[in-house]
Design brief:
5 strands, alpha+beta, 30% helix, five-stranded antiparallel sheet
Length: 164
């Protein structure tokens, strides 16, 4: 296995790459420049554009140019590029005139996770003290270490199985 990072070795079914743009996918139209957009970044794999319903000033989305409904449909190089671009624009948001005090990166994969536009995208959300945006976590419901270890084992086994 050498020096190849773990996740680049995971098999990605070519069938997963067959997801194509649909006539009704607004983010495909945005990525192609066929719909209104306030463009922040563009390269051969991804686009970064302003969210039309921003949590705070500077809230933007990074999305693949090729349609991918979910993380499972996303080629690894494109996912890596999405994160790289998100990190770069996050730095620009914090260092530039917007002067965000923090950044949230948020990606909802699937309806149960809150995905509303079924073209995978990563939110880059500038944060400011007292802005009112929250992600609620119930810290009183922490599972036991035994339960955490059990889940870790299940996930680790799945990773090992994917590498075989």
């Amino acid at each position: 296995m050498g020096d190849v990072p773990l996740f680049s070795r995971l098999p990605r079914s070519p069938a997963r790459y067959r997801v194509r743009m649909t006539a009704t996918c607004v983010f495909c139209a945005v990525a192609a420049g066929e719909a209104a957009r306030s463009l922040v970044y563009e390269d051969d794999l991804v686009v970064g554009f302003m969210d039309i319903y921003p949590v705070n000033p500077g809230h933007l989305l990074v999305a693949p140019k090729r349609h991918a409904t979910s993380l499972g449909d996303l080629p690894l190089p494109t996912g890596c590029r999405m994160m790289e671009v998100a990190l770069r624009v996050a730095d620009a948001i914090q260092a530039g005139p917007l002067r965000a005090e923090g950044i949230n990166l948020f990606l909802a994969d699937g309806e149960a996770a809150g995905q509303e536009i079924f073209h995978i995208h990563l939110h880059v959300i500038p944060r400011f003290r007292g802005d009112g945006f929250t992600l609620r976590i119930d810290y009183d419901r922490a599972p036991s270490r035994t339960r955490l270890d059990e889940h870790a084992g299940i996930i680790s086994a799945s990773l090992r199985g994917a590498e075989a």
